[in-house]
Each structure stands twice: as structure tokens, then as C-alpha cells.
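pinning this so it doesn't scroll away 📌
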Amino acid sequence: MLEAGIPAPDFSAPTNGGGEFTLSEQRGKFVVLYFYPKDSTPGCTVEACNFRDANAEYTALNAVVVGVSKDSVRRHDNFVKKQELNFPLVSDADSDICEQYGTWVKKKMYGKEYMGIARATFLVGPEGDILHVWPKVSVKAHADEVLDTLRTHSTG
């Protein structure tokens, strides 16, 4: 997994609503780039809704929130509509972005190994460098933790 202090790998990818997100086009803003396993699952829904509820605070701090998973744009559209999300969800169907950021990992459940997305968040600064990484995320208070860290970076 990538660490703080290095340039964030640039990417362009499709988003919900037929859009496209390009990281380098966000220069001058903070970007909260969070990777999550799957739309509409319990933990991912809690995490997304917490980011949704705090999004006005992120915007006030010159930050954009972006979720990344392997789900299709269509699945993202349904998730955004159902949960009334107010930020883009990137579709990384081929795992390219996940691999660049080191979040496409071997996981284990019930004794079986499989490849999946490690829940992680990267705070990218206005110059495009990774400022902070949360390699293991507990969804309940995560949006607030990220917001607290963003506040320290945005004020100096």
C-alpha cells in the first residue's frame, strides 16, 4: 500500500451518473480518496453515508470526497440514488486504480483466500501528494477521523 509523502498516482475513470473523475484535475483541492469493497453492503453503506453527512464540512475545507470500488457504473448509480450520496463513486472494474494504490490484496474468509479491496483511505493534498493514509478503516467513526486530519492540514 502506498504511503504518505509520495505523489498520488494519477488516474481517470468512469463515475456514477455517466461522469469521469481525473485525479490531476483536482489540483488545488484536497481529495479524500476512499477505497471500499462493495456497494450496498452494511459496512460500505455506513461509510458512504457518513461521508455523505459530512460532505458540506469537507467542501468548506476545499476538499472533495471520492469513493472507489470495482462495482460497475450502473451499480454505483443505484447505490448513489438509494443512499442519496453527494459525491462521485469511481468504477475500477479492472482493479487498475486499486493495484496502483496497493488496495487490491489477498483476503481470507472462512478459510478461503480470494482477491479483494482492502478498505483504505488516502488524503491527497492540493499539490497531488499523499498527505495521510488510513490502511485499516473502522467505518463507524472514519469520516470524522479523516475530517479531523483534514482540518490540521488545511489550517497549516
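📌 and the second one:
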Amino acid sequence: MRRRIGELESYYASRQWMTDFEDDAQGKLPPDLKRGVLSEDAVYNLLADNDWLMERIRRIAECAGKKRG
């Protein structure tokens, strides 16, 4: 999963994403093409939530490690 999130982050930060986003706005993409990845807010929120969750997991693991040792 981390690799897939990394791929999404790379695409979202790329010029290709902006080109795809602009092409979609101009109606250049097929109408039946799934385009959820072109949603600015959805992708941003997903990446932000993932960062928050990964930090939370890291802190829980850190606390669990301190209790054991």
C-alpha cells in the first residue's frame, strides 16, 4: 500500500496530473474514464489523512516499544 500511495503522490505532484486535469476540464478525456484521481480535494484529503494515520501508527508503536523495554 505504501508503494501505491507513493505512486499517487508522485503523479499528483507531476506535470502529467495537471495536463490530465486540464484535458478533463476541456472534455478531451473519454466520458466513461474513471477520473477520481483528478479530484483535487479528494486526493489531497486522502494524502493528508494517510500522513496523519502513518504518524499516529508510528507514535503508537513507539509507545508500545517503550512499555516493553
